[in-house]
Every structure is written in C-alpha cells, then in structure tokens.
Amino acid sequence: MAPSPQLGLIAPDFTLPGGVLGGENFERRDYTLAGARGRCVVLAFYPGDNTAVCTKQLCSYSSGLEAFEELDAEVWGISPQGVDSHESFARTHGLRMPLLADTDRETARAYGVAAPGIGVRRAVFLIGPDGVLRWKHVALLGATFQSAAKLTEQLSGIKNA
User: Fold this and answer.
1) pLDDT tens across 56-97, in order?
2) Edge-to-edge strands of the sheet including 40-45?
3) Domains of the chain: which residue ranges?
4) 156 phi-psi bin (left φ>0, alpha ψ -120 to 50, beta other)
5) pLDDT score for 26
6) How far apart are CA 161 and CA 159, in angstroms?
7) DSSP for 106-125, written as a single string
8) Which residues does 139 contact at the CB level (< 8 Å), separation at least 6?
9) Exactly one of 44, 54, 95, 155 is catalytic; which is it?
10) What was the pLDDT predicted at 139?
11) In the beta sheet, which residues pair with residue 21?
C-alpha cells in the first residue's frame, strides 16, 4: 500500500466519473478535485455500495449535507464500483452527494487507501479550499466510520484557521 498524502501539502488531483441524485434524475459527469478549488471537499473512500457499514456511513453524510453546505463543503463518496452501481445505491438509499467510480483504484492508490483483499480502506480526507490536505482518518478495520458531526467539527476548524 502506498503512503497516504501528507497533511499540509496539496492533495493529489484526480478526475473520476460519477453522478449525483437530483430529484428523479441521476446526473452523471466527471469530477475533478482541482475543479472544486475555493470550497472544502470531504473525500469519503468506502469499500462498497450496498454493504452494511458503507450504507450507514453514506446515509449519515447524506442526511447531514446541510451542515456540510453551511461550511461551504462538498462531500464526495469514492469506491471501486462503477457509476451504474452508484446510481442504484443512491436511488435505493436516497443519497444526495456525488458518488465517484474509482474502478481501477488509481485514486485510492494515490491516497494510500488501496488494500489487497478488501479493495479500498474506509478513509476520509478533508481538503481545504486551497487544495491542501488539512485532516485525514484512515481506518485500520472498516467496521466504523467518522461521524458527520466529527467531520463538520474538523471543517469548522479549517474554515476558521
């Protein structure tokens, strides 16, 4: 497994296909980290669509999106499944944040979270509006996740720094 990016340095850029559920439509497009400059971005790497812990994690982030938006932050879920799987996952659970498809795990490798056997470690990276990595948490075991409250607390500190 490659090392995780260093805090205080520019986060590795990437472009991934994905989509976001907006009403009845699942709007597909490419997402580029550099294109989000000016806003904070929460990168939530998760092992798989429609798995118990991932579903609980992403549902909690989706239901708390207003708190992220108040801090001028976007939340992007990233996993190895394709965009069709993400669309089904988003529709089934009413997920309102973009879900990105890292099918070749290149982005997971760049962030040091690609893992043999499970594919991707559960991890969260908070990127400041300047593109700098400000906070991260990489789970050793994927059975738990960082709460939306913990993430918004960290984001609040970034915005006030």
Assistant:
1) 999 999 999 999 999 999 999 999 999 999 999 999 999 999
2) 25-32, 15-22, 99-101, 73-79, 40-45, 123-127, 133-138
3) 39-160
4) alpha
5) 96
6) 6
7) HHHHHTT-EETTTEE--EEE
8) 121, 122, 123, 145
9) 54
10) 86
11) 26
Residue 77: closest CA among 109, 112, 49: 49
Amino acid at 30: D
pTM over 0.85: yes
Is residue 83 classed as helix, strand or coil in its secondary structure? helix
CB 56 within 8 A of CB 147: no
Minimal CA–CA distance to 48: which of 116, 102, 127, 112? 102
Secondary-structure class of domain 39-160 per CATH: alpha beta
Calpha distance 17→102 (Å, rounded)? 8
3-class DSSP state of 69: helix
Whether 54 sits among the annotated catalytic residues: the reply is yes
What single-letter amino acid sits at 109?
R
Count CB-CB contacts under 10 A for residue 92: 11
pLDDT of amino acid 157: 86
Residue pLDDT, tens place only, 105-151: 999 999 999 988 778 999 999 999 999 999 999 987 767 899 999 99
What's 97's DSSP letter? S
